[in-house]
Amino acid sequence: MSELHHFGWYAASIKKHLPQDVFKPVPARLFGGLAYLTIVIGSFLLIGLFDLHLLLNLALSFIIGASFAGMGFLGHEILHGTVVRKPWLRDILGAIAFWPLSTGPKLWRKWHNITHHVHTQHGDDDPDAWPTLEKISKMKGFRLVYRLPLRIRATFSFASLAIQFTAHSLKMFTVYIKEFKPRKQPAVLFQTLAPWITWIGLLFIIGFQNWLFAFLIPLLIGNFIVMAYISTNHRLNPLVPVNDPLANSLSVTVPKWVNVIHFNFSYHTEHHLFPGMSSKYYPLVKEHIKSMWPERYHEMPMAKALKALWQTPRVYFDDNELVDPRKAETYGSLGNGLDPSNIQSRSYKD
To answer: pTM here?
Structure first.
């Protein structure tokens, strides 16, 4: 791996080449959120008021789930302050956008903006980083899991993408609630519980079968779509002592229309360089990165990144390698010998 640089070093190098307008909020992004909200409410009404065929209900479930994911991507952008700047309005709109995924704005900003972005892929300080071999060796439950063959673990890991965002969000609540000042903790608790009260209340209003199609299945779909991106953001990259986005982050490529409906969430390295910039302008940032540091920039098609995740373990060994404890084999990470087109392992006892 080449010499590491802090994200501020890259940002300063690029910023002087960018027009000042790219640092202004883009409230027009809210029209996308309004479209998603309209689709969700309309689909709820169709499922709740009409006795639809099973296949039509499933189709609506997928549409709602995709909308849940799209709202989550917009919520992520809103809570970075790139859509509106007034804190009270930012938090209200962010809460609405994250309501389907049941994540409160205060918790999200503490967990994601303040902690993850500042300590990205730091083995001890990033709440989203995967553990090292040393850490899992002290966790009895994890040791049992890692006795399973890699392909079986990978299959279960991919299936778990359908619940991972929701599960991790609840875990982050338990981790960070005590770090808020006592006077702010009730608001954080309310923001966490209110969406769940809404969704459980919906169950009693429309009945279990309709709720299954209107919320539960869409929640699983929304989780999977969101986590398909999040799982590629950093999990193939090394753990690093310096927050270097060109070393610790991966941008994936998807069709242009997917970038439109997902608010350019695929541009993840760009996001870590300029989290306060609307993702609308990330293609411009990407052009500058690729012209200035083409050998350091990591990108690949989404499908290829997911396949690489399935073929490699999620435990770190010496920060730069991934290790399968069961077979004592290591795999490179991006920038450290990992070739996604030809994934090879070696014994770490060599």
So the answer is: 0.95
